[in-house]
Design brief:
Jelly Rolls; 50% strand
Length: 150
């Protein structure tokens, strides 16, 4: 997991490449979207505005085709993450959902307003506590800009 303290830091580090530009396009569009409705930009990015704390997740969630970027607008949330190789797979990967689930223990971090967290695909994560959370969740393709037709 990569944690950046501010959106400005995210923009400085991840300024090149279409997928990062699309992330900023989505974030800049927040005033025009409804909470918990998915929006997309092309076929490489899906995003939504999430309000409220996530439920205490019993299992870690991992992805393969998309990675998550969470930009915290308000509140505080605790996330636990670990390398998939250090966890035990509980639910096998499903291509239809791009998810797999794991059990085990990881490292915990508190994420606060202003933070940008990037959850990499070799890791899995789960949320355990939060208060007043408002964030944008971006699901970004691992491919450069598009998926080939299957």
């Amino acid at each position: 997991m990569i944690i950046l303290n501010t959106l400005e830091e995210f923009q400085c580090v991840y300024r090149a490449g279409k997928k990062w530009q699309r992330c900023m396009e989505a974030i800049n569009n927040l005033k025009n979207i409804e909470p918990n409705v998915f929006y997309s930009i092309g076929d490489s990015l899906v995003y939504r505005l999430a309000e409220g704390s996530a439920d205490n997740a019993a299992l870690f969630e991992g992805n393969r085709r998309y990675f998550d970027v969470h930009y915290y607008l308000a509140g505080i949330e605790t996330v636990e993450y670990a390398a998939k190789t250090e966890l035990i797979q509980e639910v096998p990967y499903k291509d239809e959902t791009d998810r797999e689930y794991f059990c085990g223990q990881g490292e915990k971090h508190k994420l606060v307003a202003g933070n940008v967290a990037i959850f990499e695909n070799h890791e899995a994560y789960r949320f355990s506590a939060g208060d007043g959370v408002r964030k944008v969740i971006l699901k970004v393709t691992v491919e450069e800009t598009y998926f080939l037709n299957k």
